[in-house]
Amino acid sequence: MTSFRVQEILDSTGAVLARGDLRRKVTGVSTDTRTLRAGELFVALSGENFDGNRFAAQAAQKGASMLLLRGAPGDALPDLPGDVGLAWHRDPRRALGDLAAAHRAKLSAHVIGITGSCGKTTTKNILNELLRDVFQVVASPASFNNDVGVPHTLLLADETTGALVVEMGTNGPGEIAQLARIARPTGAIITNIGPAHLQGLGTVEGVAREKSDLFAALSRDGFAVLNLDSRYHELQRDATVARVITISVDGEGELNATDLHFESGYTTFRLNGREIAMPLLGKHNVSNLLAALAACRGIGLELETVLPSIARLTGGRQRMERHVIGDLTVIDDSYNANPDSARAAVRVLSGLHGHARRVFVLGDMLELGAMAPELHHKLGEEVARANVDLFVVVGELAECAASGALVAGMPRARVVHFANVEEAEREFPALLSGGDVALIKGSRRMSLERLTRRLEELHPTRAA
Q1: 100 lies in a domain?
Q2: Does 365 lie in the same domain as 408?
């Protein structure tokens, strides 16, 4: 368990003690009173719609040993039990990052940072699985990838940790550089570059430059996993002085996958002459696996050491999650969506065999800025050219994808639009017939996993 003396907290963050014992030890760090445990430091984060200082008394009642509140010396002290320490800081969020950075500096673990437009969480989960037979591994819980989640991940590690896998996301310029400053990665993966978070980053090239800051943070004795299938791989290579390990699918990477085949929940392929069977679907997941394998090579592991772990892989909840529901097959990929990940989903669906019909369900892809209608329209055109029998769209933006499919020649009878997920819940099940496979894709806020749950309510289920 991570622990700190109060003096260490003050030294690493610049916080000012208002009350308490400098020698007192805190056993962990929390930013949420709902999960806070006795003895922890409570860091009071604030945002546009919340003020962490308001939860000071609640944190003390739950047994917090120390409070780090937003404020300055001379501010009025909240009414707290006499044995609870308190320190002021003008920006507790910054203090959380500084505390995590100081903790990171004491660790001897391999620290692998992962970013990209999509596939970050899946690649993190794959790498965690590959490494856990060799090291004590700490990996980002869920999608802890921002300036709160990354510090929390680092603070989970201790002197027994051999590998630390840290997911890093961004919504605007400079965020990856700031996360890398805190995490100080010894290795890095950029999964891919695509049109995601364009509201904050403007253009796809802007996304590429922002993500490349992770490579720029590496030292010469580190390693960078470079995806040669990315159109921006040269920009990424130029960003780093670290050793570069290349990957590709049907290309010329140091780790190169060929002869891909998808069937019954598995993807098979050849990797540098080896036959690999992976219990995940899709070319994009092959790329994610290659990135994780390259990271294993980067920290000095032979592939033969980690290849047996591939049999244990799972995609994670709502990430190409396969369900057999009665006589239907449903692939729930509704955790999130952007144009690149949606195209990957279409490729997976098109390559599936042994089903009566292939049904693609698309919800709105959000955070694409002014380009959103055009990007949805282009995706619809690609669906029309793919091996898809029925195209179901949910939401206002997704209707642009329906228009794109119709313009590209998909028959109107094979394109269905629902205004929202509630309407889709009522009407979608009646569109499916025995033997169909449906792949469901949409941004998180669209909540399209509700369609899978509705189908499970209506049909008997069995294990996939």
Answers
A1: no
A2: yes
Do 208 and 77 reside in the same domain of the chain? no
Is 362 part of any domain? Answer: yes
Q: Does any domain span residue 47?
A: yes
Distance, C-alpha 98 to centroid of its chain: 23
Q: 273: burial class by Cβ within 10 Å (0-12, 13-18, 19+)?
A: exposed
Instruction: Give, to the nearest 10 degrees, the angle between helix 92-105 and helix 6-13.
Output: 110
Number of folded domains that form the chain: 3
What is the per-residue pLDDT for 438? 97
Of 312, 330, 357, the residue that ends a domain is: 312
Domain range holding 447? Answer: 321-462
Q: What is the DSSP letter of 300?
A: T
Write the pLDDT tens digit of every residue in 62-109. Answer: 999 999 999 999 999 888 887 899 999 999 999 999 999 999 999 999
**What's the pLDDT tens digit per position in 227-246?**
999 999 999 999 999 999 99
Distance CA 189, CA 86 (A): 39
Q: What is the DSSP string of 387-413?
A: S-SEEEEESTTHHHHHHHHHHTT--GG
Specify the pLDDT at position 460.
Answer: 63
Q: Mind listing the pLDDT tens digit for each residue in 159-187?
A: 999 999 999 999 899 999 999 999 999 99
